[in-house]
Amino acid sequence: MSNEKLRELDRLAKQFDIAFDGPGSTKRWPDVHARHFKAIQALGSQTYESYRDASRVTFNDQPWRSRTKQRAEQVAAEARHLYNDKSNEMEWRLSLEPDILARFKHRITW
Which end of the chain has the least Cβ crowding within 10 Å, N or C? Predict the structure, then answer.
């Protein structure tokens, strides 16, 4: 990111009184939310390789996992496009939600 862009973001943050305190200590997490925050933290540090290795175990029983990386790459590419175009929230939602939520429309059988 260019210095000019960083200065503009800094100016906007000051204008709208936005502050980022950093990730904070896990000791400051409210007990009621700690379990969720730990899960989010674990997801944030997961690599595709570790996900892929874990999914190989169940690949024969869950064939939809074979397209997970491809779908993730498509969503990421669309998100980059929307970000670069400075799209608003509605454009993001109209563009990404159908693909992301489509998986929930399929019947799951065991």
Answer: C
Query: Token pair of 16, please?
Result: 């709208």
- Mean pLDDT over all residues of the chain? 82
103 CB contacts (<8 Å, ≥6 apart)?
A: 64
**What is the percent of the chain where pLDDT is above 90?**
32
Closest among 83, 101, 99 to 91, alpha carbons compared: 83
**Within 13 A of 90's CA, how many CA atoms are on the CB side?**
0
Q: How far apart are CA 59 and CA 102, in angstroms?
A: 20
pTM above the 0.85 mark?
Answer: no
